[in-house]
Amino acid sequence: MDHTPRELVMRARRRDPVAFASIVRSHERSALAVAYAVLSDATAAGDVVQEAFIKAWQRMDELTDPDRFSAWLARIVRNESIDARRRRPAATCDVETVSVAFTSDPSAGLEQTETRQRIDGALAELDEETRTAVVLRYYDNLSSRQIGEVLDLTPAAVDMRLSRARRELREKLSKERNTP
Fold first, then answer.
1. pTM for this one?
2. What is the pLDDT of residues 29-83, one digit of tens each?
3. Which residue segment(s) compose the domain that 58 sits in?
4. Which of 28, 33, 43, 32 is nearest to 91 (CA)?
5. CA dist., res. 24 & res. 28, Å (int)
6. Residues 6+ apart with CB under 8 A from 89
7. Domain count of the fold of the chain
């Protein structure tokens, strides 16, 4: 039973739990990426995403354009993440995530894990809005217009942030690679 994203949103607006479950499955990864961009904590990001999906379900009737669901959800996730960050104490190192990455298959995944850690470290040095823009573009494939809706920026401002972010990330990662 294949349905377009628009049809699923329309069904979810009519309180169809099966349609909403399908929406959750298709948007969960990008929602986690947005939350992680703000919180830098996988566990907290998971909690925030659950809360955001509950809010989205409760507020489906507020969504005026079903085609903008991704941006609408990303904004809910971002706002929930900011609220969660304000409420929690300073973040600690997520040792469990690192240990799981190393216990699965250290020889096969070590290089990928190291690369991911370098990228995550470089992303963490970006300001929150820029980091969120990068995540929304490259993890959720949103357009500059959609990202602008989430961040309350013009598409031109989003493009400028993304350009600056790519340059900064390239510099940070190349410096790190050239450091013994």
1. 0.67
2. 889 989 988 888 889 999 999 999 999 999 998 998 998 898 899 999 999 999 9
3. 5-178
4. 43
5. 5
6. none
7. 1
